[in-house]
Amino acid sequence: MDIEAVIFDLDGVLVHTDHHHYLAWKRMCDEEGIPFDEAINDRLRGISRMACVNIVLEKASRRYSQQEKMHLAERKNGYYKEKLQSLSAADLPSGIVETLDTLREKRIKLAVGSSSKNAPYILERLGLSRKFDVVADGNDICRSKPDPEVFLLAASKLGVRPDRCLVIEDAAAGVEAAFRGGMWVAAIGEACVCDMADYQIGQIEELLPILQANGSVAH
Ligand code: G6P
Ligand code: MG
Question: How far is the CA of 18 from the centre of ligand 1 (A)?
Fold first, then answer.
């Protein structure tokens, strides 16, 4: 295993905007009278906004037209963006900036691979935009995770072979996407139950020791 690049998922890996997504869906579902809970929210991790609407509506008591679905997606995104307005570097989980800086010092290329169309805005608010060599996100792709498109795009923008990339993911759909893309994958958080992952990590600080242990970076 010779890792030249690490591709980070955004929501739930670099920052806990996964909780902001939950709150926005919950608000919309409460207003619509649609049951919604953390278990349903976990199924939305890594999935594009419109595909999420279809999952959320599985519990609805009536059918929604395509136009209504688009309005629901826009409404949820409005609630989500309200939450994002207060986002700042203070919201970064411990160890993120240090890990990115150390990997860069060790000449590992860094990318973001996210299904979110809000990724550029979030990275800017967190002061992370310039930490990555490339960003591939929901604005660049046609098929969201578990399709490997976003990760393959990140690898190709970096000019690194897929089998030299390690993906960090909190979503089962994201772990599957990395696996289908022929990449190595470390699951974090909710994705740790996913048996397609090569590694399970509790927090981001565990990443560097993995790369040191397999010889991709020096101690
Ligand atoms: C990420 C999140 C998903 C979200 C998707 C689209 O992958 O894990 O829960 O649905 O991005 O996000 P967006 O910000 O474009 O609505
Ligand atoms: Mg995620």
Answer: 8
